[in-house]
Each structure stands twice: as structure tokens, then as C-alpha cells.
Amino acid sequence: LAKTTQPISMDSYEGQEVNITCSHNNIATNDYITWYQQFPSQGPRFIIQGYKTKVTNEVASLFIPADRKSSTLSLPRVSLSDTAVYYCLVGDKGSARQLTFGSGTQLTVLP
Amino acid sequence: NAGVTQTPKFRVLKTGQSMTLLCAQDMNHEYMYWYRQDPGMGLRLIHYSVGEGTTAKGEVPDGYNVSRLKKQNFLLGLESAAPSQTSVYFCASSPPGGDYGYTFGSGTRLTVV
Known about the structure:
The complex is a heterodimer of chains A (111) and B (113). Chain A is built from no helices and nine strands. Chain A is mainly β and 111 residues long. Chain A has a single domain (9-110), classed as Immunoglobulin-like, CATH 2.60.40. The termini of chain A are far apart. Chain B contains no helices and eleven strands. In chain B, strands 2, 4, 5, 6, 9, 10 and 11 form a seven-stranded mixed sheet that branches. A four-stranded antiparallel sheet of chain B has the order 1-3-8-7, with no helix packed on it. In chain B, strand 9 and strand 10 (103-104) form a beta hairpin. Chain B is globular and about 40 Å long. Classes of the chains: A mainly beta (111), B mainly beta (113). Chain A binds chain B through residues 32, 34, 36, 41-46, 49, 87, 92-104, and chain B through 4, 30-31, 33, 35, 40-45, 48-50, 56, 58-59, 90, 92, 96-107.
């Protein structure tokens, strides 16, 4: 299983763009990169998933360089309600992979 | 469409007691998972299932058993609860293709005293 490394915490201000980078040096050919968001006392929620280059949805963008050894989750114009823990996971989406959640990145959005 | 429903939401057990946590999903997902989350930590996989009647061990299976008698249900059992099993338990499900990731339940907060 590919191990991921991401910052423990980040602070930002309302209205700013936030970029959270995740390192996954031993990512396998079939692995996808998936990001989850978790609020206190709730289960994680799927944000975005990608394989290479750039993926964008209504919530976030995911940037993946050609070597795929890292990825960056970009949250545009964050608000206080974006304060949460963000997890980066790597695995083969087509199998019942045992996803390993690291400690994640605690994002705190300040007024 | 309820998604993933976990019952109960809260429970206090005495050491040595047993209990079963129920997870139900209405999305016809093949794969189901049980995770535990301890304070300040990420989620750790306990057991998972790739289909009705099949289960497999995850990262931290000791002290737990599971069953998947029906596709929509995944039960997690604690035969003899220990204080070390105090945690928040999350159930999740996903389709085989894995698009849109896992859908998680809202969790069961278990305290063993």
C-alpha cells in the first residue's frame, strides 16, 4: 500500500485559496488518489479523486504532476465551514483495497 | 436514500460485555468496511467484506468479529469488550469500481468502562 505524507496542520483566512500537498512516492500504476474531508463527530466525506493531471469538481481541484509522486488539493475561497481534517489516500479504486488513513491535515480557517 | 446507517450512535459497555454494531447501506454496494478512529488519529481498518458471505481482516482485527449475511448489512461484534476498544467506529461502503470513493456512516461512539 502506498504510504502518504501530508502536513499535520494548516491555517488560512476566509476567502483565500488553500493548497494541501500530499506525498506518495511509492504510488503504483493502478493507484488513484482520493481526498476526503472529515468534520468533528462525522464520518469522512469524499471530495475528489484523480489519476493524473488535473481534476476539478464543484468543491475542489486536484493537481497531479506527471510522475504522480505527489498531489495537491486546492480549495478555492475557503470559508469557516471548510475547517476540517483532510485526508489523502492512494489505492486501486477497482479493488476492495484496504485504504489506510493517515493522520490527515487539520485545516483551520480563520475569520 | 439514507446512504450508510449505523446503529447505535452511542453505547457504554462494561468490561467483558458483548455487543453488536449494525451497519446498513441502501446503495447496493458490494464492498463494506469497518474502521475505528481514536482521538487525534486517522481511521484504522478492522475488517472488510467484498460481498455477501465473505469477510476479511484489516489492520486491527483482534477482539472483533464480523458477518455479512445480507448484502446490505455488515455487523461488527465485540465478544468481550475491553477499555482499549473505546473508540468511534465508522462503517463505509463502496461499489466495485470505486468511483466517488467510500460512503461513510455517521459513526458509533463506544465507551468501555
